[in-house]
Each structure stands twice: as C-alpha cells, then as structure tokens.
UniProtKB/TrEMBL annotation, chain A:
Pfam entry (one): PqiA
Organism whose genome encodes this protein: Dyella marensis
Entry annotated with the keyword Disulfide bond: no
Main location: membrane
Record-linked InterPro entries: PqiA-like, PqiA-PqiB_transport
Keywords, ordered alphabetically: Cell inner membrane, Cell membrane, Membrane, Transmembrane, Transmembrane helix
Sequence intervals crossing the membrane: 53-72, 101-127, 148-168, 174-193
Localization in the cell: Cell inner membrane
One GO term describing the cellular component: plasma membrane
Protein name in UniProt: Paraquat-inducible protein A
From TrEMBL, chain B:
Gene3D superfamilies: Zn-finger domain of Sec23/24 (2.30.30.380)
Keyword Mitochondrion: no
Protein name: Paraquat-inducible protein A
Organism (species): Dyella marensis
Record keywords, A-Z: Membrane, Transmembrane, Transmembrane helix
Pfam families found in the cross-reference section: PqiA
Taxonomic path: Bacteria, Pseudomonadati, Pseudomonadota, Gammaproteobacteria, Lysobacterales
TM annotation in the entry: 48-72, 92-123, 144-162, 168-187
C-alpha cells in the first residue's frame, strides 16, 4: 500500500483555526503564522505531549478528592442530614427508583471520566513508543474522547442547580461541599488534556514501521 | 509563504487531499483516519443568518421564562436559565456558580453575538471589524458551550427534587431545547466557510 503524503513531509501545515494550507518553513526555532487568521502554525503542537501529560496528571490528582469528599449536603425538611458523594448520588437515585436517571448520571460522572483517564494515558503512551499498531482505532478513540468528554460537567451543573433552586425555600437545605469543586476542576483539566494532545502524533513515523 | 487554497489537510492525521467539490450537506472523510475532512455547509448565508437570529430570540426566551419551578404550596420558586445557574454568583459559593454560568450562559451568548456580528458584514461580502478575533474566539469557545449538558442537568435536578417538592417544567425549558437544535448547526457547527465567503 502506498503511503499517502502528509503535510509535514511536503513542508506544509494546515492551520488549526481556519483550515488554510500553507507552505511553511520547517525550522523549529522560527515561529510562523497563518497569513489568513494569524494563528501560530504548528506542524506539531509545541512541546509534544508534555502539556497533555501535565493536564492529565493534574486532573488525576483532583479526581481523588472529587470522589472521596461529599459533593453536597442535603437536609430534607423533617429528615436527617446526609452528605452525598458523586457515587452516593448515583446510588440515591437508583434507590429512589429513578433507574434511568441513575444510569445517565453514572455514565456521565463515573464511567466517562474513568474511561477518559485510561484512554488518554493509553494514547499518550502509544504515541511515545511509536509503532504502527491500530492507528485508525486510536484516532477514533481520540475523536470519541473529544466528543463525549464534556458530558462529565453534568454533575457540576446539577449540584449548582440544586443549590440555587432550593436556596430560598422552606423545604430543606442543600449545601454544596468541596468535592464538587475538585470534580469540576478535574473535568476541565481532562478537557484541556484532550485538547492538548496532538492526534497527528498517532500517524508519525509511518514510513519506517512494519514493512 | 505560499498558500494552497485548493488543498485540504486532515486536522487529525495530517494527510493531504485536493479539496473535494461537495454538494450541500455532503461530508468528506479522511481515507486514513476517518475523521471529517470537510463538511459542505447544509445552509447558505440566509440559513445561517436566520438560525443565528432564531438562536438569539430563543436565548432571550430561555432567560425570560422559567425553565423550572420548584416549591411547596404556597411557595413557588420559578427560575429562568439565568436565575437557575447564576443565583449563587454573589454568595460564598460563587466558585460553584461560575462553571455553570460560563458553559450555559456566557459561552452560548457570546457565540451567538459573534456569529451575528460576523454574518451582518458577510452579507455585504465584507469582513467585520475584528473578524479574525471573532473567528478565533468562535473556534476557541466551541468545546466550552454546553447547553445540552445544562438541559440534561435541569432534567436530573428536577427528578432529584421531585422527592422533596413539587417540580414543574416551564416554557423556558422548551426554548432551551429548541436553542440546542438551532445552535447545533451554527454555533456548534463549523463556520470556516466564512473565511472563503468574505475573501
């Protein structure tokens, strides 16, 4: 099979912002800018995967307290006070009989973040120890991460809504707890990590692998 | 620096192609990594302008009418999109309100405003003042605009509260749902054609 030409081999760059294809000087010490939108042209994102690794690690660190600490404190009128963690919120919904919603929240708040951490580290490791293995599948995995990652913001929105809706009511009290801030930070950081990963790295070194 | 308007580079794998001629609504995919290379706009400038105007109106409606109302007789608390997300901004829990406000209010409204501004001038074949900055901002904002997540959030919050209060859905919620549909092709879509349309 013939290898399709890559922009980098032809001395070209596709602008990430406006899509214009430009022949750009390849010296790495010289910065060049898109003549149309003036964004910096980067044949590959500067610093390789270092930035993505940094965001990934920071996100992972925030993810621990996000799950261990309660995200809110619920005091129903005439009922007991109870602190809910992310996972606890899912269990509560399930126990109240809202199985469908419990499942949705479980997918957005537990499943997607977990899969995202694993998938990101998998992508980062496989581009580092570059080989031609399953490139298409890895590219697809990355696009999936980009497409679904932001749904994890669901719990942040829900806690914010619950707190503000119940705030001035006589029917009880819902107070946010620190866990939700850690959770929100970790979601934002994983989104930044995903954005900082250069998917083009998956395809680099194509000529020199499995012959 | 030479530019190659007839070429297209896959943003996900760097493969180079000749720009395909597509009919409206057709999508060209990369033969290597299967990413979307180029999506021929389903709508022309009229369509984009109409949808952007519709989005602006729907956004106002979602903030003028309650999306949800919570209460126990005789107390009811009607909350618009703005009230539901932003009422914490002034309290000690402001940091908690900020992400919600950013993704459900700020990002979508700025997107709609920027698109409207750019389209207003594009109608006359011109680039609006600040066109570059507006287009960059639109590109940057896209992943952070999350009305769909906010809508699901309202639904989940409504179900969680149903156990302790009377919960009703307001007309603002339908405006919000329509807004998501309308912005799916514009604000959340690909406005890159505007670069060529205003050249």
């Amino acid at each position: 099979m013939t290898v399709r030409p890559r922009a980098q081999h032809l001395g070209m760059v596709g602008c990430r912002v406006c899509g214009l294809v430009v022949s750009a000087p390849l010296q790495s010490d010289q910065r060049s800018f898109c003549p149309r939108c003036r964004s910096e042209l980067q044949p590959r994102l500067a610093g390789g995967s270092a930035r993505a690794w940094a965001f990934w690690l920071a996100a992972l660190i925030f993810y621990v307290p996000a799950n261990l600490l309660p995200v809110m404190d619920i005091r129903v009128l005439g009922g007991a006070q109870h602190a809910a963690t992310i996972l606890g919120g899912v269990v509560d919904l399930w126990r109240d009989g809202s199985h469908g919603v419990a499942l949705v929240v479980f997918v957005a708040s537990v499943l997607i973040p977990t899969v995202k951490y694993l998938a990101l580290v998998f992508l980062l490791l496989t581009v580092r120890h570059a080989n031609g293995w399953a490139r298409r599948a890895r590219a697809r995995l990355y696009r999936w991460l980009e497409a679904v990652g932001y749904w994890s913001m669901l719990d942040v929105v829900v806690v914010g809504l619950l707190v503000s809706l119940v705030q001035f009511q006589a029917l009880g009290e819902i107070q946010p707890r620190a866990g939700i801030l850690f959770f929100g930070m970790s979601v934002v950081l994983t989104m930044l990590a995903t954005q900082s990963f250069d998917a083009r790295l998956i395809w680099d070194g194509e000529g020199d692998d499995t012959v | 620096m030479r530019t190659h308007p007839s070429l297209i580079v896959c943003p996900h794998c760097d493969a180079v192609y000749r720009r395909p001629a597509l009919a409206a609504g057709q999508v060209a995919r990369c033969g290597e990594c299967d990413a979307v290379l180029h999506r021929a706009a389903r709508l022309d400038m009229n369509g984009w302008t109409a949808l952007t105007l519709a989005a602006a109106i729907l956004f106002v409606l979602a903030n003028a009418f309650p999306v949800i109302s919570v209460g126990m007789q005789p107390f009811r608390n009607d909350a618009t999109l703005w009230q539901a997300t932003a009422s914490l901004v002034h309290g000690a829990w402001a940091p908690l309100a900020l992400p919600g406000v950013a993704v459900a209010i700020v990002a979508p409204s700025v997107q709609i405003a920027l698109l409207g501004w750019v389209l207003l001038f594009a109608w006359h074949g011109r680039r609006a003042p600040g066109f570059r900055l507006a287009m960059k901002a639109l590109d940057w904002l896209r992943p952070w605009s999350m009305l769909d997540v906010a809508l699901l959030g309202v639904a989940v919050a409504a179900i969680k509260l149903a156990g302790m209060a009377e919960v009703a859905i307001g007309p603002g919620l339908w405006a919000m749902a329509a807004l998501i549909g309308v912005t799916a092709v514009t604000a959340k879509g690909d406005p890159r054609w505007l670069w060529e349309a205003t050249e």
